[in-house]
Each structure stands twice: as structure tokens, then as C-alpha cells.
Amino acid sequence: MLILFILQDVCIVLALAALLLTFFSTYVFQAGLVELLYDKFRFTIMVCVIYFVLTTGVYIWTLSVRWKEPLKHNWSVGLYIMYIIQRFMAPVYYYFYKRAMLRISDPRFFEDFEWNPSSQISHINGMVK
Asked: Which residue spans traverse the membrane (predicted)?
């Protein structure tokens, strides 16, 4: 059971790393417009991190309860609640991760299209004033 939990956590981390590596290979990132990518994908990154924390928390709590008595099923109310929250968060995580991967595959992120740095700087300066 421990091996499966570790394998699942490693897969979640690798999925987030693949998403970030895809961000790094875009023209927008290489042109220095990281804030633009962050604005478009901030919620997805937060959902990925929250899901990873919830999943790891459920796994650690489950293992700590089962470690003492492996044949007995004695979950507390808190563990049930955390488990249910993590299970409800799973479709949200998969939806936003899939959506982000499909959005980042847009060819506009990989070519010089509407990403003129001077217009971005004037936009940023307009926000500061």
C-alpha cells in the first residue's frame, strides 16, 4: 500500500512538472512575459498544489492509522471528511489540468502573435498608474 501511495504522489508531481516544462517552452515565457502565463494559469497551478497536499495528507493519515493495526478498520471522522474532500477535489484537479494542457497547446503561445513586449509594458504601466 505504501508503494502505491508513493507512486501516485510521484505521478502527481511529474504531471505538474510536465505542465511547468510546457510553460517554459512557450514563446511567451522565453520572451520574458511570465506574468502573462501566470495570470492565465494561476488557478490551475493552485488546484494542482492543493490536490497534491490533500492526497499526501490522506495517504499519511491513512498509513499512520493502519500502521499500528493493519487488519483493523478504524478511521476517525476527520479522516473520513478529508478523504471525501480529496475525492471531490479529484475531478476538479483532472478537469483543470486537462484544460490547462489543452490551452497551452494553442499555437499562439509558441509564436510571436500578439505578445509584443512593448504593448505588454504599456499595459503594465497603465495598471501601475
From this structure: 6-29, 41-63, 75-96
pTM assigned to the model: 0.78
pLDDT at 29 over 60: yes
User: In 3-state terms, the chain is what percent helix, strand and coil (to 5)?
Assistant: 80, 0, 20
Query: What are the tens digits of pLDDT across the range 43-92?
Result: 999 999 999 999 999 999 998 888 888 788 888 899 999 999 999 999 99
Residues in CB range of 2: below 8 A, 6 or more apart: 63
Q: Between vectors from CA 63 to CA 57 and to CA 44, what angle results, nearest 5°?
A: 25
Q: Is 124 a domain residue?
A: no
Domain that holds residue 103: 2-108
> Which has more confidence, 45 or 121?
45
Cα(50)–Cα(58) distance, rounded to whole angstroms? 12
Instruction: Give me the number of domains the chain comprises.
Output: 1
Q: Is residue 48 part of a domain?
A: yes
Amino acid at 83: Y
CA–CA gap between residue 28 and residue 119 (Å, rounded)? 13
